[in-house]
Amino acid sequence: MKIKSVRLSLLSLVLLGSVTVVSCSSDDSAPYSQPPTESEPTEPEEEAEKATLDVVVKQVTESSVTFTLGAKHAVSAYYHIVDKGVEVSQKEILEKGVKVEALEGDVTAEGLLPGKEYELYVAALNQEEVVTMTDKGIGFTTKDQVVDVSIALTEVDATHERVLFTLTPTDAVQARYMVLEKADVADLDITAEFVLENGNNIINLKQPSNLKPKVSKPDTDYVIYAAGLSATGMTVVVSEEVRTKEVPTDPVDDGTLRFTKLNFTGDEVNKNVTYYLYFTSDEWDVTFKIAATDAKEEELKEGKYIRNSKAEINPGPGQVGKSYTILNKKTNEKDTDIDYGDIIITKQGANYKVVVDMVRLSDFKKHFKAEFNGIPVIGEPRP
C-alpha cells in the first residue's frame, strides 16, 4: 500500500512541474488579451428631410402651360398632365411623367390641345427617394384656338352633270376644294389637311371663285368640301351638301357651237408642242392655243388641257393659253368674257372629238361651249 502511494505522489509532482513550466513560459508568440473596455454608444443617423413642393400655374396658351416649380430638399422632380378627372398615382407620375431639369423656376409643357381641361400633377424625390406629390391635380384650361382664315361656300346649286358653287377665301395662302359622293364619305371625317393635299387648287385667293366641276351621276347626293391654310399654319374646312338633278328628258340647247371644220398647226420645241386650234364656220371664227409634251406637230395629242384664271400667254404642257379669239363674223363682235375652263381632245380611229368648255367671267353659271367632230386639217385656214 505504501508503494502505491509513493508512485501517485511522484506522478502528481511531475504533472505539477509541467503546469508550472507552461505558466511561466516567456515565449513571444503567445497570445495577449487586452482587458475589455466599455465602448461609447453611437448616435443614430438623422433622417433626410422630406421634399416639399410649391406649384403655381403661371400662363396658359392654346397648346401649352407654364408653371412655377419650387421643390426644396429634392434631388429630382417629375410632372404629368392628364385630362380632367383622370386619377393619377405616384407610380404613374414617376413612370409616365416628364423629368424636370431645374427644381426651381418656370417649366413649360407643350403639345396640348386648344380649349381643353387638364390637370397637372407633380412629384419630387428626396435623397432617400421618399416621394412627395401634389395632393390633387392642379386644374387649368387651354385657350380656344383663334382661327385666322375662313372659307365660305355660297350659291350652291347643281345640274344633272355639274355642281355649282362660289368659293370665297379670306386671309388664305392656299385653298382647295373637292366634290365627293355623300355615300362614299358618310362615315368618314374629312379633314382640312386631307382636302389641302388632295383637292383642286384655287388660284386667285383675293376674290370669289365661281366653280362648276363635273360629276358622274345625276340624281345623286354630293358633298362639297373646301379648305384653307393661313400664313400662320392654321387650317379650316367647310362643307355643303347638294343633289344633282335628274337627266332632262327633253333636249336642252346649252348654246354649244357645233363646228365641222377644225384646222391646227403645231410648233415643236424639244418634244413640247404648242398647238393653234382654228374652229371655223359661216358665222364663227374661234381660236385657242394649247400645249402638250412628248407630242408631234402633225398629230393632235389627246388629253385634257386646263385654262386657269391666271393663264399665261404661252401655255405650259397640259394648259390652255391666255390669248384666244371668239369672233362673230356676222356682227364682227368679239367675245372676251372667258375666265377659266378646259379643252378635251379624244380620238377614235381617224376621227377626233374636241370639246371646249369655258366658264364666263361675268356669270359662272353661263359657259362658252364649242365642239368639233371629224378629221382636223393641218395648216392655218385660208379664206
Summarize the structure in words:
The longest helix has 22 residues, at 2-23. The model is unreliable at 1-33 (pLDDT under 50). The radius of gyration is 47 Å and the shape is elongated. It has helices at residues 2-23, 90-96, 182-185, 192-198; strands at 52-60, 64-72, 76-83, 98-99, 104-110, 117-125, 131-133, 138-141, 150-158, 163-170, 174-181, 200-201, 209-211, 221-229, 235-243, 257-259, 261-269, 272-280, 284-293, 303-307, 320-328, 333-334, 340-348, 351-359, 367-374, 377-378. Helix content is 10%, strand content 45%. It folds into three domains: 52-142, Immunoglobulins (Immunoglobulin-like, Sandwich), CATH 2.60.40; 150-244, Single Sheet (S-adenosyl-L-methionine-dependent methyltransferases), CATH 2.20.130.20; 252-378, no CATH class. With 383 residues, the protein is mainly β.
Which descriptors would you attach to this protein?
single chain, 383 residues, mainly beta, Immunoglobulin-like, six-stranded mixed sheet, five-stranded antiparallel sheet, disordered N terminus, signal
